[in-house]
Every structure is written in structure tokens, then in C-alpha cells.
Backbone:
């Protein structure tokens, strides 16, 4: 006879999802999570242990976003034959 699965303890969240691996995140998703972390930390709503964990996660997200931006810049340089040109304000044309 099979046993019924025990019910989660009161107050626990049975739908807790582990954080996404930072290296697999798209830029926009990582940036949105980073902004949320910053907001929580600035608001002082986190206990010390959670603040430290949030700081670590935020640092990972920041490095990931910076790397994705650097990769995009290199790709643009390749598309522009090795030179990154400034865009003129207002008309969107390369200067």
C-alpha cells in the first residue's frame, strides 16, 4: 500500500523555485532581478543574512549584465568593421 504524501508544514511555501542560473539569463531578466534586489536592499526590508545573500546574487547579476553589454559592444564593432562610432543625437544616424 502506498503512503499519502505528507502535507507541507504550515507557513512553508511548497512552490519555492530555486533561483535561475545567472549564466543562462537574458540581459533584461537579469537586469530586472538586479533592480528588484537593489530596491529591497535600499528599502531596508531584508534581515542581515538575506541582505548578504542578496548582495552576492546582485554581484553575480551585475557581472553577467556587464559581460553581456561588453559582448554586444564587440559585436557592434564587428558589424561596423572594427570601429565603434558614436550616434548623432536626434537622428539616429552614425556620426
Residues:
Amino acid at each position: 500500500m502506498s503512503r499519502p504524501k505528507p502535507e507541507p508544514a504550515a507557513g512553508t511555501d511548497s512552490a519555492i523555485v530555486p533561483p535561475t542560473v545567472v549564466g543562462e539569463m537574458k540581459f533584461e531578466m537579469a537586469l530586472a532581478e538586479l533592480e528588484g534586489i537593489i530596491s529591497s536592499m535600499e528599502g531596508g526590508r531584508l534581515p542581515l543574512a538575506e541582505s548578504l545573500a542578496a548582495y552576492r546574487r546582485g554581484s553575480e547579476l551585475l557581472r553577467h549584465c556587464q559581460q553581456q553589454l561588453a559582448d554586444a559592444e564587440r559585436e557592434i564593432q564587428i558589424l561596423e568593421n572594427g570601429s565603434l562610432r558614436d550616434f548623432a543625437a536626434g537622428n539616429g544616424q552614425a556620426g
Notes: The chain is about 50% helix and 0% strand. The two ends are 76 Å apart (CA to CA). The CA atoms of residues 2 and 8 lie 18 Å apart.
